[in-house]
Amino acid sequence: MTTLSRRRLLTGAAAAAAAGGVFGIGDLARSATSRAADTAGPLRIGYLPITDAAPLLLAHSAALYPAGLVSSAKPVLFRSWASLGEAFVTGKVDVVHLLMPMAVQLRYALGGGVRVLGWNHTNGSALTVAPHIKDLSDLAGTQVAIPFWWSIHNIVLQQLLRAHGLRPVVRRSASRSGRTVELIVMSPSDMVPALANRSIGGYVVADPFNAVAQIKKIGRIHTFLGDVWRDHACCALITRDDVIAQRPNAIQQVTDAVVGAQLLLNTDRVAAAKALGGGHYLPQPVPAVQLALTYPDPPYPLAHPDWQPQRLGFTPFPFAGFTHRLVEAMGETVIDGDRRFLDRLDPARVHADLVDDQFVRSALAAHGGPAAFGLAASLTRKEQVITA
């Protein structure tokens, strides 16, 4: 296998370029297996500048991490999922918020010891389109940007396109007559200018990039992804097996702090927007961050208003049914890269191997139990996904 082919397994060609990555998948695997955990220094946190990272960031802003637990410097900001993933598996950062499908990919394609501790949030993403796009059928013959191949954004977008008679394609020009839509990977920070100059017909991504497009009047939100998959997890709280083995108390403290920050976010979202936006942690202006955290009922009908799909949720518990359904959906998703690792997976068994929920269960108990987050005491739920 060539170096380029190995790299595409992690990122896809476009994402590898966005990362400036020098590692192929084999190099990453060797780094992941040879890396030794830092058993003494502060834990290093990495994030993308999106509202999905809010619990990790607010925990830092509100000083919820015990002194010396994490680096005294601000968490490390990355501009693309590819660069954050590379830094994580090579040990440059220890705790991150990461796309759930990407966590599956990194664990089973790399064997890098990726472990999900809990959910960072639910919902919080949308399909934003250019002003002239009225119906989904208008996307036929256009390019739509996604942040990463293995993302809930790509998965749900493809479900949405197929439900409306459109076919997603990769590495081939879209055809209006053929009702195809070309998907391309793009860093979230590049999506807004690309939509502004009409080089793409739309993008699907986490906020506040959807809010920014609305505020700047260069695009509009067409569909909140939570209107397709109710309260889906986009990003999870992630660490590695070696960090858990060497520093279980530190991981418990991090989880406690993040769960505490989720409660704060649910209590006062306006205050959180002021603490995070305007360059404090997120480069986007406070009004955009505040809009993303407090969307009112949008000015167009929701398919399932009782789901509150526009509401970015902060609930920490990782439901096994979601992981099962997610792995099944990954098998139905078109990507530009190697997907053979999926052939080895039993969707019913992935959750038990990928997720270590002991820390979040303890954190929930310390913060008022499941009821404090509106969760059932049984900590179970049934997935609700609209595919047609």
Bin the helical content.
25-40%
Full CATH superfamily name of the largest domain:
Periplasmic binding protein-like II
What CATH architecture label of the largest domain applies? 3-Layer(aba) Sandwich
The pLDDT mean sits at 90
Q: In the residues, how many domains can be counted?
A: 2
Q: What does the overall shape look like?
A: globular
Structural class: alpha/beta
SSE order: HHEHEHEHEEEHEEHEHEEHHHHHHH
CATH class term of the largest domain: Alpha Beta
**Main sheet characteristics:** 6 strands, mixed
- The number of helical runs is 15
Q: Which runs of at least 5 residues are low in confidence (pLDDT < 50)?
A: 1-28, 30-34
Radius of gyration: 19 Å
Strand content: 5-15%
The largest sheet has its strands arranged as 7-8-6-9-5-10
CATH topology of the largest domain: D-Maltodextrin-Binding Protein, domain 2
User: Terminal Cα separation, in Å?
Assistant: 39 Å
Tell me the number of strands. 11
GO cellular component, one term: plasma membrane
Family: Belongs to the CmpA/NrtA family.
Protein name: ABC transporter substrate-binding protein
Keywords: Cell inner membrane, Cell membrane, Membrane, Transport
